[in-house]
Amino acid sequence: MDLEIFSPVHPWQHPVFAAQGLNVFIKRDDLIHPLISGNKWRKLKYVLQHARAQRKNHLVTFGGAYSNHLLATAAAAARFGFKATGIVRGEAVSNDTLFLCRLHGMNLIFVDRDSYRNKLKLFQEHFWHDEQAYFIDEGGASPLAIQGCSELVAELPQTYHHLFCACGTGTTAAGIITGLQQHHLPTHMHAVPVLKNGDFMRQEINAYLTTPADYTLHTDSHFGGYAKTTPELLQFIQQFTASTGILIEPIYTGKMLYALLQLAQQQYFAAGSQILAIHSGGIWGLLGMKDKFTLNS
Ligand SMILES: *Cc1c(COP(=O)(O)O)cnc(C)c1O
């Protein structure tokens, strides 16, 4: 049970980088799979292997109505022959993400926000009679997910001075830091929380690390909070896509890449720096936000 990892590293050219002698690259984890995208496959890989080893054939997981993790789990379940249930926060809605979940055979259960807080309780209530049911936490967060994300580091074609990734739960960042430690690399990690008051992310990340690490959290790049946008962010995404041919979305990768560009504008990096940003996928989220864009005809 595996996906072949196709995640090439592409240069990101920009006049600001050229002017400062920066070499910036993007690792295309978004190309791993159209729906089991980027970090979501890395996070699920060992979780699914564990489920299979435990002879559980029914994946039960959690997310909001636009959750990339729900969609990735639905697609991975279909791909590898599991049944899947998604427990969705909030009243019943339909959107592109949930449509694709259902298309892959995922069964959806909508629960109110209060009940949603206690996920183990929901799992037990709904599936106490189902011996095949296997609990996967919201966002796929778990120590097995750390292991999966750490493997990204072994794929890197060179050593970078700086490595950037977007953070929701911090699992991906913690996994990459773990990988950098395992390979004794000097690369400095930059994690960009996409939610407001992202300082808490440091505890989340540190809780996963077996050895303390020195990394930077950029907590001012949330653009007002989770899934919030500004005209500047949307304009950046439009220009980025039109000038690179790479799709990004405003929830995760758009904010992280914008943060990187802004730091370069502030001359944060030394000339000659080699910088890598992880494209963690999630581009279906772009369609859910298409009405926010005002594009020229
Ligand atoms: C889920 C997701 C993230 C956040 O990953 P965490 O491990 O929760 O920090 C980042 N980028 C994209 C595109 C995602 O879908």
Question: Could you please describe the fold and organization of this structure?
Answer:
The chain contains twelve helices and ten strands. It is an alpha/beta fold. The protein has two domains: 9-35 and 143-292, 3-Layer(aba) Sandwich (Rossmann fold), CATH 3.40.50.1100; 39-140, Rossmann fold. The longest helix has 15 residues, at 39-53. The model has no long low-confidence stretch (mean pLDDT 96). Pyridoxal-5'-phosphate (PLP) binds at residues 38-40, 68-69, 139, 166-173, 252-253, 280-282.
Bound compounds, each kind once, are:
pyridoxal-5'-phosphate
Q: Which secondary-structure class do the elements indicate?
A: alpha/beta
Number of strand elements: 10
Question: Within the CATH hierarchy, at the fold level, what is the topology of the largest domain?
Answer: Rossmann fold
Helix count from the secondary structure assignment: 12
Give the amount of beta strand, in percent: 15-25%
> Biggest sheet: strands, sense, closure?
6 strands, mixed
CATH C-level category of the largest domain = Alpha Beta
Q: State the end-to-end distance.
A: 45 Å
Binned, the helix content reads: 25-40%
Assembly form of the protein: single chain
Topology:
Layout: E1 9-11, H1 15-19, E2 23-28, H2 39-53, E3 58-63, H3 68-80, E4 83-89, H4 96-103, E5 107-111, H5 113-116, H6 119-127, E6 133-135, H7 143-150, E7 162-167, H8 171-182, E8 188-193, H9 201-208, E9 215-217, H10 231-244, H11 253-265, E10 274-279, H12 284-288
Parallel strand pairs: 2-10, 3-4, 3-6, 4-5, 7-8, 7-10, 8-9
Antiparallel strand pairs: 1-2
Helix pairs in contact: 2-7, 3-4, 7-8, 8-9
Pyridoxal-5'-phosphate binds next to helix 2, helix 3, strand 7 and helix 8.
Pfam families: PALP
Active site: 67 (nucleophile)
GO molecular function: D-cysteine desulfhydrase activity
